[in-house]
Amino acid sequence: MVRSMLKTVVLVTAVLFCTASAFAHAGELLTFSGLGDLQPVGNFYNGGGLSSTPNYGVTFSSNFFGLTAISNGGTGNFAGTPGGVPAIFIINSNGTTGSPATGVMNVTPGFSSGLNFFFTAGFTGSQTETVTIWSGANGTGTVLATITLANNNGTCDSPAYCNWSSVGTTFSGTAHSVTFSGPANELGLTDITLGSNSTAVPEPSSIYLLGTGLAGIVLGKARRFLGV
Which pLDDT does position 18 carry in this prediction? Predict the structure, then answer.
């Protein structure tokens, strides 16, 4: 009976490991976990983050900053992100909200196949944000794909940014940079997936159901083994 229980534990561990691996190989995920409120993003994913932060060779222009939701003790006037992690946003040189700004994400090793991210936007009127994927660094070379983002918070009140939307695209070739051009301080980004047009963030409900279901099997066998 002990042997049977151990086999079940091994099976549970293997399944959970495979599930985690599947998400890990769906693309490189930038969650910005551990990035401080109003902290420059800079080299956070280029060796300048926490000891646990992967070094993907990804850098951000100096006008990208981290932002934490007010509900989590930060200054961001937005609803918590899908994964409960910080968001990032772009400012311009004069700090004026709504005036033109461009932020750049450079990916030195390059990435292919696709890009996905979550965004919250509050542009007014006909304003939009253009996300462009480039073959070269710093928004140079060939345009591989373009995404246009519009306001997805038209009905929000408090907080002003209450919706997060997932958007992705596929492309051919190898990209080395992505530019975000539009109104400053009116766009939040989080959970950027490099190498896939779908998010690499696991669905909490799926993981929860899988975990609780398999945990139930283990618990059931443990109860029988212990006689409780």
Answer: 41
